[in-house]
Amino acid sequence: MAPPNNESKPTPKATATAAPKIATASATAAKASPASSSSPCLFSLKDGELTVGGGEAKAALLTGVPGNVTLTPFAAAFDQAPPDTPRELVERAVANARRGAFLGFTLPPEAAAATDRAACRVGRLPGPRDFLSVFRFKTWWSTAWAGRRGRDLQMETQWVLLEVPELAGAGAGYVLVLPLVQGKFRSAIFPAGGDDDGVVICAESGSKAVTGTDFSRIAYLHAGDDPYTLMHEAYLAARVHLGTFRLIQEKALPPIVDRFGWCTWDAFYLTVDPAGVWQGVSELAGAGLPPRFVIIDDGWQSVIRDSNPPHSDASPGLVLGGDQMTARLHRFDECARFRCYRSGALLRRPPETFYDKNLPKAVIRKAAEIENAGKAKKKAAAAAAGQGGAVDLSSIDAKIAELRRELEKLLAKKDAVLGKLCSAGDVGAGAGGGDIGLKAFVKDMRRRFPALEDVYVWQALCGGWGGVRPGATPLDARVVPARPSPGLAGTMDDLAVDRIIEGGIGLVRPDQAGELYESMHSYLAGAGVTGVKVDVIHTLEYVCEDHGGRVELAKAYYDGLSKSIAKNFDGTGIIASMQQCNDFFFLGTRQVAMGRAGDDFWFEDPNGDPMGVYWLQGAHMVNCAYNSLWMGQFIRPDWDMFQSDHACAAFHAASRAICGGPVYVSDSLGGHDFDLLRRLVFPDGTVPRCLHYALPTRDCLFKNTLFDQHTVLKIWNLNKFGGVIGAFNCQGAGWDPTEHRVRGYSHCYKPVSGNVWPADVEWEQREETSAMANAASYAVYRCQTEELLLMTVHSEPIQFTLQPSSFELFTFAPVTLTGGASKVRFAPIGIVDLLNCGGAIVDMEYGSGGEMRMKVKGSGRVLVYSDVKPRRSLVDGCEAEFEWGSGGKLMVVVTWKQDKDGVSDVVFHY
Length: 910
Prior knowledge:
46 strands; alpha+beta; 7-stranded antiparallel beta sheet; 6-stranded parallel beta sheet
């Protein structure tokens, strides 16, 4: 079927093997699977009712569907996949074609003309039906929301997963409603408003010059009995249909995914400098926890405010996040603090000999005092205005002036220290005798810290927060006013949005986007930088009016970014951030393989609520867990940094241990809990990473794990020889749909009970672990209580109770009955001194002579379940003492083997 008249096909790319036509792939799939595209579609639209199911087993999803709403089976939507689509993906999509259909609409005849923003009521949710959704609560960030009726939907909903229990086992126990990109339009789901249970799909271009009438492919429906497989199949279908992105399995992961790292953000904010970065890496490496990557966050760039003279630098006076949001990039190299670094400076004079590690904290505290005084002034003025009177603010102004003088003294002291550093390098550096600036610094860092492999730096998608300063570079940049789309009107107040609207964006012409990234990244790559953290991604939708709309502008920028990452950073050196909108995922993930799964880690409530130290931590964790359901189809979810000395540090560490992504902290100088970090990180700076990415368990999918007062967040993941369930009491905060903000629910901040069993682990989501689902019994280790239990699939679940902001990790290992005369029941747990203990097991072999051989990475106590006491144990061929007790708890100690990459050979003889 030809695409509608306002849908543009993606630009073909050269490929060695042309993608098969749908008809050809359909015939192949029909031979392999009876549930192929030749079978009737599970969805039907008749007499104003959208149903799912087949034969007598049908369920209504929407009623009162208007006549201009259309439904097109996936198999009938087009006849050929985009040219660069792998044949395997096409065949898999076609094999499941009957499970999918496109939902859309055309403008009714009475509509006056084509429009740039079309909102269509597509029906109402009949009766209560549990759903899980993800919506944008800020421009940049999304979170989960569960409900039962159409009126429960939130604005800017990116997808809805409906539970259809009446069709469980019939292939349609769950249905995903997925808004898509069609041509130059993107879409989202909205509630109809008030007590109306209607569902609205809104298609928008972002430009009044880009209009359309036909939106028949604007959303996609997919049905299935496994919610995790369903998500994958639905996004695979979107991949085959759109051809504008690649799935995660098509891309290589960045090396940092298996490594421990440190980010400079919370340690310095915008005052980051070479000596401070060096000191931070040195502290961790000196404790036997060498960072394998470092992210030099916001503050390293050369930025300038519009009020500053040309070629001056605003960087020295910037401290806290927000100060820089109206500043623009005016050169592609580093700011003066890094630019003046000379080769060898910190090798000759390490920072511990002259650098006051408490000074960055003092600067940040003073800047925070100024910020709080400013908030107090606004509050007092607003209160007086509300009462119709005047108020004397002179005392507050005087206080702010005094605080600014104190801050200036601290910054001058900091600059004086750095000034000495700038003259302490090799003689002749920068004059043909050595490197200077960022290149010299990165080179010296690697010489001093050989374990440090990756250095990433921060950037905004448009260059700086305020884009690029016009006239400052060879690129054609113009300040464009920032205008949020109407759909964002109901989202949360956001300082970043306010500042961007205040200053506009210095937007480089879209056809020069590739030149922008090449100019930035080629310089950085030449300096030894291996990747970028790209932030503020959804700025583009604010400035798209005169550039063909949000889809076309995004395509130009994402194409330039992808090509530059491929050329300058080995195709993988990027973390995407502030990117949680479907525009980015459908258009910007051709090259990107890792991105943030949640809002920022806030060590305290930015609005000053003391409970925010605690309740915001649970909100962060829930954001990451549920966003991973969809983001994990495109990227490996990054659960973000945290601080190891935070009040909830162990709570965060446990989630990072099993998240399946990188582990990194943003500790301040001197602010580390090394004992906690050793439970996350191997002595070589690598981490025991899970095979999959962490996702909520099935019994949490349609629950409010933040403030329903009784649901524990449970997340599952897989290791090579077992599974793991993390249980977290996140109750106490969440979205308030009336106030349009995240707030505390203190009455929910209390102990909550839950249970776990082996079926909570989704064993079949990975081919290499699927057989573990059929084990007759499992050994289960509780991390916090250090209990070892034995369960069968028919056992009663393990009951537990968690205090607020606390956790438990359950490691599940299938029990194997080994060969030989002894017939031992055996299950490997792992190194229990690690939070993800099962991730330490590298290999397992059951010998025919009754011995069990394990390769274990790390140091500490190796635990296995064994119902028989072994005759002896060997570690690296030497006799080793072991403990064996009631309940089958068998333990032996291993040490780190530097010459074997930390791997020990452990053998138990029976």
